[in-house]
Amino acid sequence: MMAKNDDAPPSRLTSKQTWLISQASIRAHRLLTGALAGVNYRGFHYRLLAALEEFGPASQAALGRRTEMDRSDVVAALNELDDRGLVKRAPDPRDSRRNVVTITSIGRAELKRLDDILAAVQDELLEPLSPSERRHLAELLARVVAHHTAD
Amino acid sequence: MMAKNDDAPPSRLTSKQTWLISQASIRAHRLLTGALAGVNYRGFHYRLLAALEEFGPASQAALGRRTEMDRSDVVAALNELDDRGLVKRAPDPRDSRRNVVTITSIGRAELKRLDDILAAVQDELLEPLSPSERRHLAELLARVVAHHTAD
DNA sequence: CAAATTTCAGTTCCACTGAGATGG
DNA sequence: CCCATCTCAGTGAAACTGAAATTT
Counting CB atoms within 10 angstroms of each CB, which of A93, B44, B47, B63 has the fewest? Predict the structure, then answer.
């Protein structure tokens, strides 16, 4: 007997906004991790570099809060960035419990390179949408996210 | 020294659609798993019941394809549904490699109950959006997802 | 003494892989 | 012989937990 098309998901799922968001997120995640893996980075590397470049030197605990990473994972990720010379760690003279983490000039250059790569990912993800539709999507999502974000 | 607000994510992230989608997906996932956990279900239970109710009795392999679940996980999830009397498994008389899985009347009743719960979740997730905005969001996401879905 | 930071080691959860048994 | 199915056991990654050491 011929193989039927037995891989279509049930319409109960496909009609739900939660499902659409989840599917879109899976696709976005794939594009993103794929693009970063191509240049030997992971998402949290970018998040850490972005936080350091925007807010300046910070403790590891503060970086964890900003990037929503676990304290243990921050340690490991910073080890890797340190090994590549993208960040520097130094003891905080004002609070010796802390390390002050600073982005290096190499780190800034790499961040710029990653910016370009991620911009291309945004473009690829939203290819079927017009510029105004992309803005509208972002605005709607931002309102949903803000509404469910506790302060 | 006063604690600064050191938990805001970098704008490099918050401005990216991939980030917004991912954040929205995390929120949606939380609402969904929370609501289902409240009545002792998991997402894949609903997906399996929905597939069975829409497409009729199916083999476990086919269910795995439809619900995008791993073959191993389908086995475990069906064991649970079977234990609760929501599905029945019987050997396929036409192909004895297969089990034919059928939803029971109890299963249908439970699916209805879950439908109501999930409808409430959609509503809660999209609370800040008007009906027409919700439709627009769904339409934009559907186009993005379709574009990145291989046939 | 209570709280915060860095770090390591261990746990838990999930998705997936491999392989055996059965059968088409 | 090759492929599909069901099942279980095991692997590996990711996020988190606990606790120790240090300092505020």
Answer: A93
